[in-house]
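Encode chain A's predicted structure.
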Amino acid sequence: MPVEGLSFSGLARSLSISERSTAKPPGAKDLRITRQTPLSAQLDGGDRVGYVVAQQAVEIAIDEAADVGLAVVGANNTWYTGMLSNYAEMITAKGLVAVIASNASPWVTPFGGTEGRFGTNPFCLGFPAPQRP
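Encoded structure for chain A:
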């Protein structure tokens, strides 16, 4: 079943995540906060899939923004986070503005090329709104 109307996010993505998890099982390191201040945090994902790491990052960001009015949370040692809009919607549901960015592997081949050289560099903005953020 497509996610948000996108056919590439269903079974094929689930299979690739399963294959990577089987080839390199997570768990050697815990997901942990490596640094934290009243308005920022840094997470070490412990080589876990980004869905898990991003969920925790969003929860920390929402909690810190509720206390201080602003939050910056970073995460490393993680992979495949999925659609950033899912996390932005969690943040905007709390009446907050979201700015989310992610890195990407160089899998996009430039015109005339034969190998991937560019990543998609996902970037997402989310703003609360009465109807649909």
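The chain has a mean pLDDT of 86.
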